[in-house]
Every structure is written in C-alpha cells, then in structure tokens.
Amino acid sequence: MLTTLPLEAFVCREVMTNYWFPDEQWNPNRHLIFTTSVVVTAMTMALLTCDLGAVFELIGATSACALAYILPPLCYIKLSTKSRKTIPAVMCVIFGFTVMGISLFMAMAKMFQSKPTSSSLRKMEQLMGGYRSGR
Predict the structure, then answer these.
(1) How far is CA 119 from CA 50, 53, 114, 122, 127, in A?
(2) What would the pLDDT profile of 73-129 be if each residue is shown by its tens digit?
(3) How many CA atoms lie within 13 A of 26 on its CB side?
(4) Which of 30, 52, 73, 105 has an alpha carbon within 20 to 30 A of 118's alpha carbon?
C-alpha cells in the first residue's frame, strides 16, 4: 500500500504530459505542478471521504463503463473507415455514456442520502477532540 500512490501518480503524470505536451522536452516545473496536483487531489478526496464504498462506486461507474463500452468502440471508429459499419460502434459509445451517467447519478445520490454511521461519527469526534485539546 505504501507504493500505490507514487505508482499511480507516475502513471497520471505521464498520461497528462503525453496528452498536453507530446512533443516537448522534460520540464521540472511542469513535473512538479502535475505531481503536486495529483497528490493534493488524492489527499483532498481522502480527507473528504468517510465511506470507501462510495469511492469504489464512483471509480467503478466511470472506469468500468469507459473500459467496457466506450474506449473499444472509439478505437474501432478511429481505426476503421467511416461507413455504415461504424454505426453500431457509435451506438455502443452512446450507450456507454448513458450507463456512465446513470451510474454516477445513482452513486452520488446514494452518497448524499446516506448518513454517516455512528462509528465514523465517533472517529471524527475523536479526531476533532484531539485536535481541539492539543493532543
């Protein structure tokens, strides 16, 4: 678990660099900005989330739909000539985005409707109480 965040930050940073700056040389300032943004985003999400199940639902709603329904047909459309053969691929992409939207909506609705459990409330109170008392 200790090496998970640096490994994921490496992948995210490389993807961002190759996407936005494909033909430019390595820049230490850009490297620092991308790494800091990935780490701060991950830290913010970790601090704001009490329920790991909600995080898994959001990740599953986005990545599963993208990997199963969106990216393969998009690759097919990109590699093939535009003809009637690409119509099912376009329909599959539309279906994937529809399923992704519904899944995200349901996961977020569940996240906002659910109340924190008593154990998570106790942990938060302990953390805040320790912080207030200077422990």
Answers:
(1) 10, 15, 14, 5, 12
(2) 999 998 988 888 899 999 999 999 999 999 999 888 887 776 655 565 566 666 666
(3) 5
(4) 105
Name the CA dihedral angle for 56, 58, 64, 66, rounded to a multiple of 10 degrees: -150
pLDDT value at residue 57 = 84
Which bin fits 134, alpha (ψ -120 to 50), beta or left (φ > 0)? Answer: left
Predicted local distance difference test score (pLDDT) of residue 92: 95
Counting beta carbons within 10 angstroms of the beta carbon of residue 58, is it exposed (0 to 12), middle (13 to 18) or buried (19 or more)? middle
Q: What amino acid is encoded at 98 in this protein?
A: T
Spatial distance between the Cα atoms of 4 and 51, rounded to a whole number of angstroms: 19
Cα dihedral: 28, 1, 67, 106 (round 10) = -110
Domain boundaries, the chain: 1-48, 51-135
Nearest Cα residue to 76 out of 57, 90, 63, 64? 90
Which among 44, 31, 39 is positioned nearest to 6, based on CA atoms? 39
For residue 92, what are the contacts with CB-CB under 8 A and spacing of at least 6?
69, 70, 72, 73
